[in-house]
């Protein structure tokens, strides 16, 4: 957690979404699907509503799965953020034959086994930035420069350490 999977997925989604006939960014799959017995239905409804630009009624996960099988034959970009169980992928991304060739499904998860169980073909592990990379990124956004500003060297390092979940050493 905390490596920026959601942020990276959002950036890819925003960059590529105009190349697809339909798109949907589904955040917090784990939390929404577990929040209530109808959580997966709500997520299916979100995807179908995003695709057809109208409110779609989904009465059950089974019905939602059937609707998605029948109606998602478009070149589709979908992000499923924070997936933690194979059943979520079955209900929300089912099988590749649901989508037209050229479709892309991006899944963020902390559990690679979920992807393996769903037979995901391409898995990319996101690694934490090194201290130098993190400081350079921070400086680029905070000061508009890639190089370290000497007067703020200690503070920049403290911000980067704090963002990584390390204790401050003031």
From TrEMBL:
Domain NB-ARC intervals: 1-146
Question: Which InterPro entries is this protein grouped with?
Answer: Disease_R_plants, NB-ARC, P-loop_NTPase
Q: What Pfam families is this protein classified in?
A: NB-ARC
Question: A single GO BP annotation from the record?
Answer: defense response
Q: What is the superkingdom listed in this entry's lineage?
A: Eukaryota
SUPFAM superfamilies from the UniProt entry: P-loop containing nucleoside triphosphate hydrolases
Which residues fall in a coiled-coil region? none
* Name of the protein described by the UniProt record: NBS-LRR resistance-like protein GbD-cnl29
- Specify the species: Gynura bicolor
